[in-house]
């Protein structure tokens, strides 16, 4: 959390406003500012503090409730509040659930928004609760009469109605309505991925003959291709207008691009985010039917097969992404990531030099599993500055046995080959973590798993002891040899 956010929280706390009430006041101030900007008289002559407070009492109480402070308190927080972006504040603190800023979506959305500046017809932007900070960019770039903004989140719907009263926001996606263009994006932050996939699959063809669609689907639906997820993915793959599929790393999403004509082969690539641009790793295009006939369609598994590595593709086999969470997991809200970091866990830390990758098992200390955080402890956790280990890349497991399994997998000869090939497809550690998440392992029942964990811990302890003894023997031999080399210190008179 940056200094501006920490400062405004303290200022509000000093006047008795905490938690979700802070968000309410930030929204009140934004709406109040919109009123001031709309007044030519205020723009020309300005407004005094007492008149501004009076305006807040008269114009915002119906929407946001009574002001919980007097004029003096109002003046201490009103101005400084504009140093904070509301959506970023919500994302950081978790004071309000069901909405996220989604700044990471700016890069993949950049070309889409630019294209729709000159496209024609009605555009539906779906699941805006996951990219709420981009709503203003969308509303500024595209006329409101060409837009519909859909959210299934009641929190997001109500907030947008308050903040953008003229914006065309809807809380239900009509099943039978045909749009000229559709853009939907989600990593599964607030809804189960299977529900998101059902919704998209049911409406995948709801675009006009000349229309287009960009569906960013949660990567977890690709990793967990069983039941409804499997049917939905297959159905989306078989659409003749499917032009391209892109795995965005480390954004945790697959982009399905539908154009306005039939396509014989689908372009396939991994796009790795590199700051304000992206790097592409393209693969051989495939017909729709070939992709749909795979046991499981996955960019990673297809890429490994092109590299001469036969990947496990049975949908029943668990993936790393189903067993653990990454250090900046896109399917987990930021405030929940902070909570995860506060509890004990076993981590599989990743370091790389070129295509050489090193993995290290680390026991992370923290609160015990099952402990609850009281209100003060939670607030302190949310308000802390950036974590010291922010740059570390790791997989986190609440069950140490899962960490042992995957450490063993990637330290094996076959696992090291897989890891080296994946490292050739992604340059940055966080992106590599995502690609690792699609690798599958055998199903291991509870009793055999406990036995394997015991064997792992025994072998690990024996290795540690052997290394310690080897180091001690080595140092002892050095000291013995040194007696013939290093002169004795001169004795002083």
TrEMBL record:
Record's protein name: Uncharacterized protein
Organism: Veillonella seminalis ACS-216-V-Col6b
């Amino acid at each position: 959390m940056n200094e501006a956010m920490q400062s405004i929280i303290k200022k509000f706390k000093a006047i008795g406003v905490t938690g979700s009430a802070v968000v309410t006041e930030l929204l009140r101030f934004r709406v109040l500012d919109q009123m001031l900007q709309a007044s030519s008289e205020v723009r020309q002559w300005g407004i005094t503090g007492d008149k501004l407070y009076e305006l807040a009492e008269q114009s915002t109480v119906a929407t946001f409730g009574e002001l919980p402070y007097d004029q003096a308190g109002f003046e201490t927080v009103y101005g400084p509040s504009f140093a904070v972006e509301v959506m970023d504040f919500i994302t950081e603190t978790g004071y309000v659930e069901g909405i996220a800023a989604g700044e990471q979506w700016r890069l993949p959305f950049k070309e889409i928004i630019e294209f729709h500046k000159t496209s024609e017809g009605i555009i539906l932007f779906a699941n805006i609760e996951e990219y709420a900070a981009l709503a203003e960019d969308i509303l500024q770039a595209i006329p409101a009469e060409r837009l519909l903004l859909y959210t299934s989140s009641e929190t997001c719907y109500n907030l947008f109605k308050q903040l953008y009263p003229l914006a065309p926001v809807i809380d239900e996606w009509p099943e039978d309505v045909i749009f000229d263009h559709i853009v939907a994006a989600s990593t599964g932050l607030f809804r189960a991925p299977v529900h998101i996939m059902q919704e998209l699959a049911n409406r995948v063809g709801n675009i006009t003959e000349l229309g287009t669609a960009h569906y960013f689907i949660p990567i977890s639906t690709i990793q967990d291709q069983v039941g409804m997820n499997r049917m939905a993915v297959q159905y989306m793959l078989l659409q003749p207008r499917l032009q391209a599929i892109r795995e965005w790393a480390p954004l945790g999403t697959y982009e399905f691009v539908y154009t306005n004509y039939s396509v014989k082969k689908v372009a396939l690539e991994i796009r790795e985010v590199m700051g304000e641009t992206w790097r592409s790793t393209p693969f051989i295009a495939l017909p729709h039917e070939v992709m749909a006939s795979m046991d499981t369609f996955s960019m990673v598994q297809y890429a490994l097969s092109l590299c001469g590595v036969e990947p496990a593709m049975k949908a029943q086999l668990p993936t790393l992404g189903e067993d653990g969470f990454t250090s900046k997991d896109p399917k987990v809200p930021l405030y929940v990531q902070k909570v995860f970091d506060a509890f004990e866990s076993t981590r599989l830390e990743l370091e790389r030099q070129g295509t050489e990758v090193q993995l290290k098992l680390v026991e992370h200390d923290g609160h015990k599993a099952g402990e609850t955080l009281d209100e003060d402890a939670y607030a302190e956790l949310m308000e802390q500055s950036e974590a010291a280990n922010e740059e570390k890349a790791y997989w986190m497991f609440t069950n140490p046995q899962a960490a042992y399994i995957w450490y063993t997998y990637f330290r094996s000869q076959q696992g090291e080959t897989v890891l080296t090939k994946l490292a050739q497809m992604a340059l940055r550690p966080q992106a590599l973590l995502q690609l690792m998440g699609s690798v599958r392992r055998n199903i291991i029942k509870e009793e055999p798993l406990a036995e394997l964990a015991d064997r792992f811990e025994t072998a690990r302890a024996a290795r540690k002891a052997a290394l310690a003894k080897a180091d001690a023997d080595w140092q002892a031999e050095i000291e013995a040899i040194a007696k013939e080399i290093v002169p004795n210190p001169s004795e002083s008179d």
